[in-house]
Amino acid sequence: MKPHFHYLLCFFLAVSLQLGHAQNTTDHRFEVKTLIVFFDGLRPDYITEAQMPNLFAFKKRAAWGKHHHSVFPTVTRVNSASYATGSYPGTHGLLGNSIYIPEVAPNKSIGTSYGDLSKIPGATSGPLLTAKSLGEVLADAGQKMMVFSSGTTGQAFLQNHTVNGAVVNPDLILPESFKKQVSDEIGLVSQGTDEEMGRHKWITDALLKYGLIKNGPLVSAIWFSDPDGAAHEHGIGSEEAVKAIRYVDGQFGRIMDALQAKGTDERYNVIISTDHGFVTHKEKPGLADFLIREGFKKDKESDDVVVAEGAIYVKNHDEKVISSIVAALHKQEWVGAVFTKGIKKGDAKGEVKGTLSFDLIHYNHPKRSGDILVAPNWNDAKNDKGYAGTDFSGGVAGHGGSSPYEINIALLAAGPDFKAGATTELPTSNIDIVPTVLSIYGLPKPATMDGRPVAELLKGPQKAMGNTKKLVLKTEASYPWGTYKLSAEMSVLGACQYFNFAQTERTPAH
Ligand SMILES: [Zn+2]
User: Fold this and answer.
1) Do the Cβ atoms of 166 and 147 come closer than 8 Å?
2) Do 236 and 152 fall within a single domain?
3) How many angstroms separate the alpha carbon of residue 398 from the centre of ligand 1?
4) So what's the pLDDT on residue 26?
5) Rounded to the nearest whole angstrom, what is the distance from the C-alpha of residue 28 to the centroid of ligand 1?
6) From the CA of 399, how far away is ligand 1's center (Å)?
7) If you measure from the C-alpha of residue 164 to the centroid of ligand 1, how many angstroms do you get, rounded to a whole number?
8) How far apart are CA 162 and CA 151, in angstroms?
9) What is the pTM of this model?
10) Per-residue confidence at 191, pLDDT binned at 50, 70, 90?
11) What does pLDDT average to over the chain?
12) Tens of pLDDT along 294-319?
């Protein structure tokens, strides 16, 4: 997006600086640095002046994407990998917080901690992520990235899995050689009753010490594991969740103060998102238990049918078993959208009647996606604190489903390259963040990146973006008990299709 004369300027600077500072001759376009901030599980309606004064103040001067999307399945590590690679799960291959990699464990799903993820390249003789990440593109350009995260090791690692620069998390510091320096200089996370808050403070300290410094990395990223953690345990709007929200907002305030103190010496674009929204949960049976009870799966350890979160893998892709499982799921009130592979590439409908396709939701990975993907059913019911959105899932509250309460999130960005106070109703997604950063730096977008630069929020000349079209896909299947109906709404902008939500309806037979 930079005009030509920018490069000319760069060239003259390069020549004129050659006498004294040969090292910095080509760095002009990297003068403005980038800070990416993720608040885990941040519903847009949390951003109020009372609850998040610092983020609220930021929002007032920021460019703001009003139709921003979490990537489905709306879980943490899917979005961590999707944002880092600017691509969908069907491209990067990290399909859930729990995943099925038969070469690692043939009869069960594995977690996605750093330890689990580290087994994948060796076991599969292939890469962990099958898409190029921001860290790798920056490495090609001779630049670095540092990731700071108070959450899980997996979420932290997936943001910079080739460790170009560093990954700093209370439980994981990479490269290994950086570990001693961090523990000497920052110390350990303070233990005790407020350990979670201690982790947020600790990574903020680390960001200020190693990320936002002169000659620091071109891109710094910080990921706060709250409000997600407290809301999972105590519910949306609970006293504990509100306390956690205020705390991480306070840490964000420290970061903003530090940037302000730097003034024009060091300038930053700050981009803010979250991995997913949040809903209240209403109890449901576990998917694996259900399949065992219905006779589709022998027992918890059997490899006939393997479950990884909402994904179901049927041995040898037996079509009869797949369609029988889908029929059994369609009848259950707690089951929402059901997806299967399309008959041919690009089909919106799935191969099994009454399902939509993996392609539609950008989930069709050539090696790793299973045979069925199930989202929990959901409704607009409010919780005791007045927050709307309820899923049929286990636990107090959470995310992972296909409701708008989980998919619809906030995108905020401010800095020298963003239009202050601009808003856009055009669809954006977490996969668009990295393409936007690359476009600011004039760096090439790898072929694996599905996302687009959010040019409508950037300064400078730009081509017309076109209009967004809403597309609704419908399918249904009838049974002796009644009819299962599924619809999915997409926002379409040029070649980009954003998944807004999927909804189900069951009508009893007469
Ligand atoms: Zn999360």
Assistant:
1) yes
2) yes
3) 9
4) 54
5) 36
6) 8
7) 24
8) 19
9) 0.93
10) confident
11) 93
12) 999 999 999 999 999 999 999 999 99
CA of 73 to the centre of ligand 1 (A): 11
CA of 76 to the centre of ligand 1 (A): 4
CA–centroid distance, 509 to ligand 1, in Å, is: 39
164 assigned to some structural domain: yes
pLDDT band at 159 (very low <50, low <70, confident <90, very high): very high
Give the total number of structural domains in the chain: 2
The whole domain housing 219 covers 30-94+129-280+397-457
Q: Separation of 31 CA from ligand 1 center, angstroms?
A: 32
Whole-angstrom distance, CA of residue 77 vs CA of residue 91: 14
CA–centroid distance, residue 386 to ligand 1 (Å): 21
- Give the CB-side neighbour count of residue 439, counting CA atoms within 13 A: 22
83-96: pLDDT as tens digits: 999 999 999 999 99
Closest CA to 64 of 458, 412, 409: 412
Tell me how far the alpha carbon of residue 272 lies from the centroid of ligand 1, in angstroms.
14
> 401 C-alpha vs ligand 1 centroid, how far in Å?
12
Q: What is the pLDDT of residue 11?
A: 38
Domain presence at residue 116: no
Q: How far is the CA of 290 from the centre of ligand 1 (A)?
A: 26
Distance CA 79, CA 479 (A): 36
Both tokens of 136, joined, read 């790798």
Least confident range of 19-28, 117-126, 244-253, 259-268: 19-28
b/e map 352-369, b = 16+ CB within 10 Å: bbbbbbbbbbbbbbeebb
**Is residue 117 a part of any domain in this protein?**
no
CA of 242 to the centre of ligand 1 (A): 16
Same domain, 197 and 295: no
CA of 477 to the centre of ligand 1 (A): 33
In CATH, what number is assigned to the domain containing residue 53?
A: 3.40.720.10
Interval 115-130: pLDDT, tens = 999 999 999 999 999 9
At how many degrees (to 10) do helices 239-262 and 195-206 cross?
A: 10
User: Which of 432, 457, 482 corresponds to the end of one domain?
Assistant: 457
Judge if 405 and 355 occupy the same domain.
no
Dist. CA 155 → ligand 1 center (Å): 9
Model pLDDT for residues 380-428, shown as the tens digit of each residue: 999 999 999 999 998 999 999 999 999 999 999 999 999 999 999 999 9
Percent of the chain residues past pLDDT 70, beyond the cut? 95
Nearest in space to 474 (alpha carbons), one of 348, 361, 377 = 348
Please give the pLDDT value at position 285: 85
Q: Evaluate whether residue 17 is within a structural domain.
A: no
Tell me how far the alpha carbon of residue 75 lies from the centroid of ligand 1, in angstroms.
Answer: 6
Do 408 and 429 lie in one domain? The reply is yes
* Residue position matching structure tokens 């409010």: 382
Residue 297 tokens, joined: 């799966």
Question: Are 242 and 172 in the same domain?
Answer: yes
Residues 296 and 149 in one domain: no
Ligand 1 center to residue 27 CA distance, Å? 35
What is the distance in A from the centroid of ligand 1 to the CA of 68? 16
